[in-house]
Amino acid sequence: MKRIAIGFSAFVLSAAIASAADDPIAVRKALMDGNAAAAGAAGAMIKGELDYSPVVAKAAIAQFRATAMAVGDFFPEGSDKGDTTAAPAIWENRPAFEEALSKFLADANAAMEASGKEGPADLDAFKAAVVPVLNNCRSCHEDFRIKQN
Which of 34, 59, 68, 148 would suit a FRET pair with 12, their CA atoms being 20 to 30 Å apart? Predict the structure, then answer.
């Protein structure tokens, strides 16, 4: 069951990316949609709205890691135009954006390693692994995303 959940998450992610490979905005939206779903599940478990499941926890962490590994490639010059909430700061201060992406990947890798083969052992272990990753999401959105009303 665990492998199915993680495999399905990876399949959905890769299918979304493959279908939009020529459109970096569509790819990064697909990646962020996957992260939003993972963050929703993680948040629900953290708040006690959803029973803790190591399988769901591992799948959420795997989603964050997959996004962290790929998303930086989908912000090429010129992809700041069109239907996007990517802030101009991404292109105006590329080193800061790259640093944020590196931190996201490092924390996602650490969360993946801490979660082990079976997923985090309990909710406290999950929180310890995933909260730094979620903090990266929040800070990146504050600095590099156009605020919407």
Answer: 148
